[in-house]
Amino acid sequence: MRSEDQVPVPAPRPGAAPGAGGPAGDDPLDRAVWRLRSRGCWLDAAALLEPYAARQAPAALRRAALLVERCMFTAAGFAEAEDALRTAEALAGDDGERGAAACERGQLAYASTVLGVRDRADEARSALGRAAALLAPGEAARPLLDYRRGLLAEHLADSPDAARAAYRRAHAGAADQGDALLLSFTWRHLAGLALREGELTEARHGFTESLRIREELGFLIGTAPALAALADAVPDDEAVRLRTEAARLFRLMGGLPTWLAGQLPPAPPEEPDAAG
Predict the structure, then answer these.
(1) Does a structural domain hold residue 227?
(2) Residue 197 in 3-state DSSP?
(3) pLDDT confidence of residue 25
(4) What counts of helices (H) and strands (E) characterise the chain?
């Protein structure tokens, strides 16, 4: 089982679920948070939100989302994410904020489970079920919730049909909201299910769309996984090129995401020193 593409959070915009920043919008703080997050600098991005997160529920939720995402990419930092979630839960003042916090708690428990840190599958199911009860069907956070419920169906329940239905709901919701980053994740997982069933044309299209969106948004931390995923659905020569590029980006990002290491070719040997 792969862990890539399991951590999207939506870009902030009027009425949207609290996220960890996105490329859209004119707010300098949002832009700064997005630049750091997109390069895997989650702690620095969270630090920008810290002055607001102690007293404002939206900022607390955004900060928690950043630290939860860090856990999925690094398999570390769970204690910090738990602390941030407790703050967000304490500050939540309505069902929308409580539902968004529950959605992040479900994702944190899911990350712990799929990365082999600690089995928290029951907690993940419970938290996402609570989020579904709190978030109205038209709530901005619903597409993200649908996506994460698809992850549980695919990777914890081994129910591809239920996962596909959830991903499609998330995909439609992300399209309606103009959430391009979430679309890149739903494209990726719908393509993964298509590949699993031998539908190479459909899989190649979905993986290509996911990669295109990430490159257009500048989501650098998520580009190597997208390249590696597409490599699974193309001819061998093209696959070699894609995996080589993914490996280059992986090294550029300091070996993140950690779970991608075994899927990529090793670094080429260093050139000998001509002076030696």
Answers:
(1) yes
(2) coil
(3) 60
(4) 12, 0
